[in-house]
Fold this protein.
Amino acid sequence: MNPAIDLLDVFFQRENRKIISNFSLRIDYGEICVLLGRSGCGKTTVLKLINRLLEPARGEIRVDGRSTKEWDPIQLKRHIGYVIQEVGLFPHMTVGANLGLLLKLERWEAERIDQRVKELLEMIGLEPQQFGKRYPSELSGGQRQRVGVARALALDPPILLMDEPFGALDPLTRQEIQAEFLALQGRLKKTVVLVTHDLREALLLGTRIVLLREGRIAALGTPQELLSSRDVEIMQYLKPLRDVHVL
Amino acid sequence: MELAEFLLENRAEVTRLIGQHVSLVLLSTVLACAVGIPAGLVMTRSHWFEKAGLGFANVVQTIPSLALFGFLIPVPAIGGIGARTAIVAMVLYALLPIVRNTYAGIRGVEESVLEAGRGLGLTPSQLMWHIQIPLSLDVIMAGVRVAAITSVGVATIAAAIGAGGLGMYIFRGVASVNSTLILAGAVPAALMALMVDFALGRLEVHLRRHKRS
Ligand SMILES: Nc1ncnc2c1ncn2[C@@H]1O[C@H](COP(=O)(O)OP(=O)(O)OP(=O)(O)O)[C@@H](O)[C@H]1O
Ligand SMILES: [Mg+2]
């Protein structure tokens, strides 16, 4: 079977500066592939290459076995849900309208849109009557992030790209949302590429973890494999966790 | 007091001149919107239009209004003496703030919101209609407000080329050194400008309500 996403020796540069080099990665259906790495190492760039917000300088990216160049760019993006790092809810639209926009553009009937919006809100644990009518400015940061995830899922895309979807939350809320996400994924079985720079999150959510360093893959493996890795950066990542354990 | 007496005695004529003035302002502002908003939108899409549009609107704005009326009078089809020439000149004046604000409003939409829209698979025109335009309405409205206020002023000069309006009293008053007559034109015009400013300002605030996420 084809992998869901296949990156084949991808290069990407800006103004002659290499951002992504020699990047090859196969992501199978149903995986939660976590991209881990320091700020600026190219995590967001990889996501944008997958849904073709950016074009690679060299190499090929295949989604469902087909090169992203052959996909209609709009179809590709609707096939892949994208949760951006800054959440990016549309501030002039209610939560309901944010969730329903793509459905409207896909010419769904109004009743069906309402039904789906209600479903999505229930899925992320927000009471539809109350939250559907609110504007993004009337939500807490965590609620906004949940809506961002729900919006990406509106068309039920088989692939989901999530750029630090649980960043900027207090640890307790973060744990809660992470658990909810895992439960949700158990039901939805999407192919997920999730960006984080939090190793704990990577270990908890990932079926596989890719450590990026300066646009290259520095390490790749299951959480178990990473935990026993001798890589210097991974050991640095692990150190605080180990220290806490000693306590 | 003399002014109140004058306005009361001539209320029929005053009403007619105010009506003319309002029509001039309304018509020219609406036309300027019809031209300026699409022009501003196109400018955000094309480098060539961006340069040409801002350049043109800036040049027009630097021509003194009386001179602009003068330039237009000999132009065939749009020129001549009367309201038509005045409206053309007023539209040209009103264009700059509308074009500039439309352009700035669209350009000012937060990058993260656009990125989210693109990532969800909105086409460029869907992005324009559903995201960029709604999110710039308040800035566009601010441009329309400036344009309308300017038009109230420019319309007083339109009387010089036979377009009527409150400028009639001002010019007559100046010619006959009659300050009551000057005020009879100037005071209602000033009030009109204040009212336009207030009303469109309120609208602008209303449109800005849900801009921050
Ligand atoms: N629009 C841009 N123009 C120029 N350089 C950019 C642009 N976007 C990103 N870069 C550069 O590309 C590199 C990779 O950026 P990217 O956004 O992929 O990092 P990241 O791993 O997502 O970082 P973070 O964890 O801070 O979000 C960085 O060096 C960044 O400065
Ligand atoms: Mg990033």
Remarks:
- Chain A touches chain B at residues 51, 53, 74-78, 82, 84-92, 101-102, 105, 135-137, 144, 148, 151-152 (CB under 8 Å).
